[in-house]
Amino acid sequence: MNLELFREIFDNFVEPVYLVDPENYTILYVNKVLKEKFGECVGQKCYYVFQNLSSPCNFCSNKYLYRNPEKPYIWLHKNLKNNRWYKCIDQFIKYNGKFLRLEIAIDVTKEIIKSNLLKEKVKEYADLFENVPVPLYRTTLEGKFIKVNKAMRELFGYSRKDFQKIKAEDLYYQPQDRKKFIKRIEKFGYVEDYEVRLKTKDGR
């Protein structure tokens, strides 16, 4: 490994890059971006500088890299010192016959926040669907139930497991009404003021 070429390449990276001795956790190199974030830290311990810890991190990637030195280890981590999320790409490289750990840390905080917001919205929708006091359900075109809310289960007397065993047409007094219903949706894209007669589990 040519150290001058190494510095020339990684000093211009827009993401943090550093090099550590995995045997004693000493920082051997940090690029310009990382130096701006954490200051001059070559010669210090990585767990102290980057994580504000007094001993090696219990999530350190060294153990994974030692198991497979030829393969990079990619993981997601939230840095508690600056509260940013990083996608870390760690790789062992050889220098003077010994392994050094190279890490490139890509800031994915914005992506994580968007993902978490999406999960919250999905949960809100699921809660609303389940608890709205109106029977709601979703099926495939073939009539397999995908989702059934609480009001629907209570009205028809079927449990969640029951709905997994039956098809939508089983709720119709006249099974052919289901086919007519589907054809109407396929033709117009929606159904409005369309009455059908449905039956509960006990046949009412």
Task: Give a structural overview.
The chain is an alpha+beta fold and 204 residues long. The protein has two domains: 3-111, Beta-Lactamase (2-Layer Sandwich); 132-204, PAS domain (Beta-Lactamase). It has eight helices and seven strands; from the N terminus they run H-E-E-H-H-H-E-E-E-H-E-E-H-H-H. Strands 2-1-5-4-3 form a five-stranded antiparallel β-sheet. The longest helix has 23 residues, at 109-131. The protein is rod-shaped, with a radius of gyration of 29 Å. The N and C termini lie far apart (80 Å). The mean pLDDT is 91.
Percentage of residues assigned to helices: 25-40%
Total strand segments = 7
Roughly what fraction of the amino acids lie in strands?
15-25%
- Regions with pLDDT < 50 over 5+ consecutive residues? none
Please count the helical segments.
8
Strand order of the largest sheet: 2-1-5-4-3
Class by alpha and beta content: alpha+beta
**Looking at CATH, which topology of the largest domain would you report?**
Beta-Lactamase
Largest sheet: 5 strands, antiparallel
Provide the residue-averaged pLDDT: 91
- Please give the CATH architecture of the largest domain: 2-Layer Sandwich
Q: CATH superfamily of the largest domain, please? A: PAS domain
Task: Give the assembly state of these chains.
Answer: single chain
CATH class of the largest domain: Alpha Beta
Number of individual domains: 2
N-to-C series of helices and strands: HEEHHHEEEHEEHHH
User: What form results from the Cα inertia axes?
Assistant: rod-shaped
| N-to-C CA distance | 80 Å
Radius of gyration (Å): 29 Å
